[in-house]
Design brief:
Blueprint (H helix, E strand, L loop, with lengths): L1 E3 L7 E3 L5 E8 L6 E6 L5 E10 L8 E9 L4 E9 L8 E8 L1
Parallel strand pairs: 1-3, 2-8
Antiparallel strand pairs: 3-6, 4-7, 5-6, 7-8
């Protein structure tokens, strides 16, 4: 498993077929802003699951949104994830990585 976070934004990672990439991004759903996958290459990456884990017990505490993707073939693909709310089409933050397998 390859675990990445915001420090990998804009970078390229190397992976091989069968690797699972775990993307962890800080999020606070109580603000209405959530991370969503905007685009990924279905020929190279297969979405496995999405999880959210709260970081604290306080009301309104944030947490970590985790996306699990499996590399299913060789090639170069880009993963684009955006932080936004459901009622607007704009993103307040974006996360992009290039995956070479």
């Amino acid at each position: 498993m390859i675990t990445i976070d915001t420090t990998f934004n804009g970078k390229k990672i190397l992976a091989k077929k069968g690797d699972v990439i775990k993307v962890q991004l800080a999020e606070n759903p109580t603000t209405g802003y959530l991370w969503k996958i905007k685009s990924s290459d279905d020929k190279h990456l297969k979405f496995k699951k999405e999880e959210y884990e709260i970081s604290g017990e306080a009301i309104g505490a944030g947490g970590i949104r985790t996306f699990h993707l499996e590399v299913i073939s060789k090639g170069i693909s880009e993963l684009h994830i955006a932080l936004g709310n459901q009622w607007e089409n704009d993103s307040v933050e974006t996360f992009r990585i290039t995956i070479e397998s």
